[in-house]
């Protein structure tokens, strides 16, 4: 027995040492050449590498010459792939995306380095890069390599990976395997457009190439992989908390998907601008976020659909949604084309949500309605516009709504709590949804007034968009809250049944200089009374200084109490599982001013 304990303990110590060495790389995009950067990464420390290197076809990159000689390109490819082989664990996996020109050469090079090819996947998209003197480029090669033929990660039982067979999906044949099957090695865009291209019993699945008009597009890098494609690779070949790397970070899609799926990650990138923009992209997402792009049929989705079979179908809701407005909605329905035309000439490519929430865009929309003699008040028109969209009728008019509203979490962080308080108070007063209250300019103005009282100095659109982002984040927050225990979240010391203010004090006695400048959670309540608000923030001291500024917001908090109790608890992060900690606090205490219904776990 003693002979076995020694090596086992030594191996455990070695793993701990490697984990400690690699930890300094995690969660970052490192600027610089990947070969030099990888040399600093400890051997055997990475679980999965995905590389989408330059194809050497003359693409214009920010900081890289994509026209090397053949020998030079192959020698460089050997160097970086050798480093990938070194840093991977013995059971590690390497995926390589490459074009036609060097696919065969790099496959052989990888095998010469010790990799074993498990699959040669063809990713095929039906709108390719136009070529003048040859057939249009419309596919890429994805090589799936492992270091050990027998020992590697492949999560074949993951229901998010398994897809229904054609027998199940098309013919609803009960003889089909209820657990589905693994996808084919041809991944194709829009198989419904290639009716004669494949036999009915073939299963081919697709990922759209991220084109310039796609909402998914990061906007700063010309060659961007779809998140759903990376999601399949990362789910199949790694497990939660595994380390995923991308030596050519580019638009940072690999790292973004790894973060969303709960993996550790890091990457390398030559371009300083791409590092900056990629880091901004990563800061704007959190573990548990949905992947961008259209999902493919999976067994989880199909089983959910089958579970609804036999239930009575919901009747289509009438276009009139709001009590007492049936007459005006009938009139607006007859003028639907005019209303949509007003939307199309005033939305500037933005969504209905943005147009209704943005006072400037909405003023333009109302003026366009006036010019086109569209009946109704501003609130009635806005509401009917939502109704048209919900009924699916807006799509038939082919209005461009692909421009994204670029207001991120970092931007709204200083005042998102104020938007939440305004949302809760206005909803309580009028019993309205967020969309309904923004539809009415008078009520939306009251929302702005409350929000600006608690956090002065921001435009109305920012307050409103923060509330919309918070609402959209609700299901993500609840899901994230279930992924870890309170101890793992760093909030185990909070007593759920009887709040102990171990790090709390009266609001009037707060020493702001002693409060942590880092992330934390907090709860504000009346003295020995009802909780008012629970929140999380990346800058605890700044948030509380802004909240209890004696010259402004403090008076709003003091309306119903002479003093308040404030509980403070620094935590390691709030961006790893965004709003998960706050979600648990809302579940435990149900504060009066939070959006408990939407965010509580």
Describe it:
The strands form two sheets. This protein has an eight-stranded mixed sheet with strand order 1-8-7-2-3-5-4-6, with helices on both faces. The protein has a four-stranded antiparallel sheet with strand order 9-12-10-11, with helices on one face. The protein has 601 residues and is α/β, with parallel strands linked by helices. Helix 6 crosses helix 7 (253-260), helix 11 (336-346) crosses helix 13 and helix 16 (416-430) crosses helix 19. The protein starts with a helix and ends with a helix. The chain is 41% helix and 13% strand. The longest helix has 22 residues, at 2-23. It has three domains: 2-283, Rossmann fold (3-Layer(aba) Sandwich), CATH 3.40.50; 326-397, no CATH class; 409-599, GIY-YIG endonuclease. Helix 7 (253-260) links the parallel strand 7 (243-246) and strand 8 (264-269). 38% of the residues are buried.
């Amino acid at each position: 027995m003693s002979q076995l304990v020694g090596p086992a303990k030594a191996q455990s110590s070695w793993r701990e040492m490697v984990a400690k060495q690699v930890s300094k790389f995690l969660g970052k995009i490192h600027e610089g050449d990947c070969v030099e950067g990888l040399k600093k990464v400890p051997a055997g420390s990475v679980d999965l590498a995905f590389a989408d290197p330059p194809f050497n076809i003359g693409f214009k990159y920010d900081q890289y010459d994509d026209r090397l000689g053949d020998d030079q390109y192959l020698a460089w490819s050997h160097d970086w792939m050798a480093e990938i082989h070194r840093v991977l664990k013995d059971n590690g996996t390497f995926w390589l995306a490459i074009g036609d020109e060097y696919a065969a050469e790099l496959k052989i090079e990888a095998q010469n380095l010790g990799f074993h090819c498990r699959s040669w996947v063809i990713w095929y998209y039906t709108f390719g890069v136009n070529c003048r003197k040859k057939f249009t480029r419309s596919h890429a090669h994805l090589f799936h390599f492992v270091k050990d033929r027998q020992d590697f990660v492949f999560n074949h039982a993951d229901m998010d990976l398994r897809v229904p067979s054609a027998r199940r999906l098309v013919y609803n044949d009960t003889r089909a395997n209820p657990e589905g099957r693994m996808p084919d090695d041809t991944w194709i865009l829009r198989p419904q457009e290639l009716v004669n291209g494949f036999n009915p019993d073939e299963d081919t699945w697709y990922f759209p190439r991220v084109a310039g008009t796609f909402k998914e597009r990061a906007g700063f890098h010309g060659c961007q992989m779809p998140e759903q494609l990376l999601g399949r690779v990362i789910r199949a070949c790694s497990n939660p908390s595994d380390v995923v790397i991308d030596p050519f970070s580019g638009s940072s899609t690999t790292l973004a998907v790894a973060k969303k799926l709960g993996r550790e990650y890091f990457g390398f990138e030559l371009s300083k601008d791409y590092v900056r923009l990629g880091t901004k992209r990563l800061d704007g997402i959190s573990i548990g976020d949905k992947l961008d792009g259209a999902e493919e049929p999976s067994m989880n989705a199909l089983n959910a659909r089958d579970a609804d079979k036999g239930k009575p179908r919901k009747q289509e809701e009438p276009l009139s949604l709001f009590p007492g407005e049936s007459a005006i909605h009938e009139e607006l329905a007859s003028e639907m084309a005019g209303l949509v035309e007003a939307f199309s000439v005033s939305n500037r490519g933005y969504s209905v949500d943005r147009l209704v929430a943005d006072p400037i865009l909405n003023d333009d929309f109302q003026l366009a309605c006036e010019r086109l003699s569209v009946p109704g008040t501003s609130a009635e028109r806005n509401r009917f516009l939502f109704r048209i969209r919900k009924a699916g009728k807006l799509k038939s008019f082919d209005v461009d709504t692909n421009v994204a509203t670029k207001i991120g979490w970092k931007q709204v962080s200083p005042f998102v709590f104020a938007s939440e308080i305004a949302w809760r108070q206005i909803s309580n007063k009028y019993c309205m949804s967020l969309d309904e209250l923004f539809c009415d300019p008078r009520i939306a103005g009251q929302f702005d007034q409350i929000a600006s009282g608690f956090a002065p100095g921001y435009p109305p659109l920012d307050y409103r968009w923060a509330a919309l982002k918070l609402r959209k984040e609700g299901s993500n927050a609840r899901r994230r809250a279930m992924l870890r225990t309170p101890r793992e979240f760093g909030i185990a010391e909070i007593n759920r049944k009887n709040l102990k203010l171990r790090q709390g004090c009266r609001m009037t006695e707060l020493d702001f200089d002693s409060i942590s400048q880092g992330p934390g959670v907090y709860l504000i309540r009346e003295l020995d009374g009802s909780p008012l608000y629970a929140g999380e923030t990346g800058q605890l001291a700044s948030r509380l200084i802004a909240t209890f500024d004696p010259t402004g917001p403090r008076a709003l908090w003091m309306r119903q109490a002479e003093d308040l109790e404030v509980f403070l608890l620094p935590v390691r992060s709030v961006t790893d599982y965004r709003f998960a900690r706050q979600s648990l606090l809302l579940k435990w205490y149900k504060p009066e001013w939070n959006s408990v219904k939407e965010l509580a776990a």
